[in-house]
Specification:
The structure holds two protein chains of two kinds.
Chain A: E1 3-5, E2 10-14, E3 19-21, E4 24-26, E5 32-38, E6 44-50, E7 56-58, E8 64-68, E9 73-78, E10 87-94, E11 100-102, E12 106-111
Parallel strand pairs in A: 2-12
Antiparallel strand pairs in A: 1-4, 3-9, 5-6, 5-10, 7-8, 8-9, 10-11, 10-12
Chain B: E1 4-7, E2 10-13, E3 19-25, E4 32-38, E5 44-51, E6 57-58, E7 67-73, E8 76-81, E9 90-97, E10 108-110, E11 114-118
Parallel strand pairs in B: 2-11
Antiparallel strand pairs in B: 1-3, 3-8, 4-5, 4-9, 5-6, 7-8, 9-10, 9-11
The chains are: A mainly beta, B mainly beta.
């Protein structure tokens, strides 16, 4: 069965520091992968997605993610975190029925 | 980008009453809409898939008589929580999809969510 694992429940980084949020997936076929961000009490905003082609994908707000098939990973990165990046981040994989399967989320806290 | 709007964003109701939440795609036709439920500090759990003009497909463990879903047009799906109880209090989020998996038109767009509190 398809699944998504985000091993880090919380991550705290200092403003200006680099960030990497981990995501591992389990999916038999070519995965369609997504990263979403959710601010408190809000819906989800798509940061970036991977369908095929270049394994390093660029997203909005300076985020990028790299698809590594050998490691079944799709980690999200940002070179310099801003205080406004504090939020909950969800990794997701789309299954064959077009449903999104979400990871448990990682809450990012940013120290001033 | 495409916009999906949910209404209401907040609703408080008494136990035993029914509450309807609307999900609208504002600038595209949504052949499929999904309803998710999110408990505090948890991930989104898919409740059901709603296809325009047909019955919704519910995920295992979701009571179809409790959570009525109607997708009467290509721009509107509604979720009605019937005879609501305090344990139904949650954040409900819808998403809408055009056509074509993996293409831009097939991308999922999420509503802002609706927070239901049942007293």
């Amino acid at each position: 069965a398809q699944s998504v694992t985000q091993p880090d429940i919380h991550i705290t980084v200092s403003e200006g520091a680099s960030l990497e949020l981990r995501c591992n997936y389990s999916y038999g076929a070519t995965p369609y992968l997504f990263w979403y961000v959710q601010s408190p009490g809000q819906g989800l905003q798509l940061l970036l997605k991977y369908f095929s082609g270049d394994t390093l994908v660029q997203g909005i707000k300076g985020f990028e993610a790299e698809f590594k098939r050998s490691q079944s990973s799709f980690n999200l990165r940002k070179p310099s975190v801003h205080w406004s990046d504090a939020a909950e981040y969800f990794c997701a994989v789309e299954d064959s029925s077009y449903k999104l399967i979400f990871g448990s989320g990682t809450r990012l806290l940013v120290r001033p | 980008g495409a916009v999906v709007s949910q209404h209401p964003s907040w609703v408080i109701c008494k136990s035993g009453t029914s509450v309807k939440i609307e999900c609208r795609s504002l600038d595209f036709q949504a052949t499929t809409m999904f309803w998710y439920r999110q408990f505090p500090k948890q991930s989104l759990m898919l409740m059901a898939t709603s296809n325009e003009g047909s019955k919704a497909t519910y995920e295992q463990g979701v009571e179809k008589d409790k959570f009525l879903i109607n997708h009467a047009s290509l721009t509107l799906s509604t979720l009605t929580v019937t005879s609501a109880h305090p344990e139904d209090s949650s954040f409900y989020i819808c998403s809408a999809k055009g056509s074509g998996r993996g293409s831009n038109t097939g991308e999922l767009f999420f509503g802002e969510g609706s927070r239901l509190t049942v007293l």
